[in-house]
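Friendly challenge for the regulars: who can give me the structure tokens for this chain first? No prize, just bragging rights.
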Amino acid sequence: MEDRKEEGLGGCLRWAFAAVMAAPLVALATWMFVYDMPRTGSMVVALAALGLPFRSAAFRVGQALALVVLCVVGWQHRTVPFEEYAAHTQEVADRCAQGPDTLTTRDLAGVWGLNVLMGLGGFVTGLPEVAQETLWMTAAGAEEREWSSDFAMRSPRVRAAVVELVHQAEQSGVERLELAPEWISWGGSYHGSHISLRVALALDELELGGMATRVGDRWRLDLRGRVEVSYPRRGRLVLGSVGGTSVHVDKSLYWALQERGWLHPYHAVWTWTIWADDPRLDDLETPLHGWQERLLLRLGVG
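First reply, four minutes later:
Bragging rights claimed.
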């Protein structure tokens, strides 16, 4: 009797584990069918089915054969996901050009899901700030949302602007000064090893200001970077090229969702404190790149 109880408990645990592991794949496949990527979605469903914990020998043999077939088919048609994505993205973009009201509910749901996938992908690829900004667009809320982080200091453009703010403070002749803002723009172009992709994607068109306070013989800057989080009516972010197919993000799709009330623009505010003698301000040319960011730059993302 005890053996049967243990076996029953073990089976429940195996199924629970399989369900947890399969849930993201099922969700991804569901979005793919909505976004008119049926062949890719079918492959993902097959991959999820491989994790089902049936214990019969026949099922295990079937799983092994399915894995072999999936690998062979996947290798032979490895560009299919990119082709399906590019084709449907262009189709929806063509309709967007005629106005956001031309999009169907299925179109809107597919693009909304794509926005969520981009946000989650940002965390995976080492771009957590723009990922966070992107995901918060799915929720209606305050027109201004604030976070604390000095990640912007990874960019030499931002560090150069901070140096200008330091000069304002040093030349003011007062003990406490509200700083006139500096404007920093990447113009929507993020190519080049001299750019911090992580900062540029999250803070394009940045208004940087704050308060400077003299503390003894040093200046402390309490900084406030403000950026609009929204999608323009036109624009593309190139992710790369696979098998001759250009893979890109067409911003007009997300603009249409804004117009239809499915995404919610807002202003993001990033705050941090820095001292005027911070050694990072000695280098105004070198961006600080993580390994994931270096890989993205090598792949030509921007």
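The longest strand covers residues 218-229. The chain is about 50% helix and 20% strand. Your move, everyone else.
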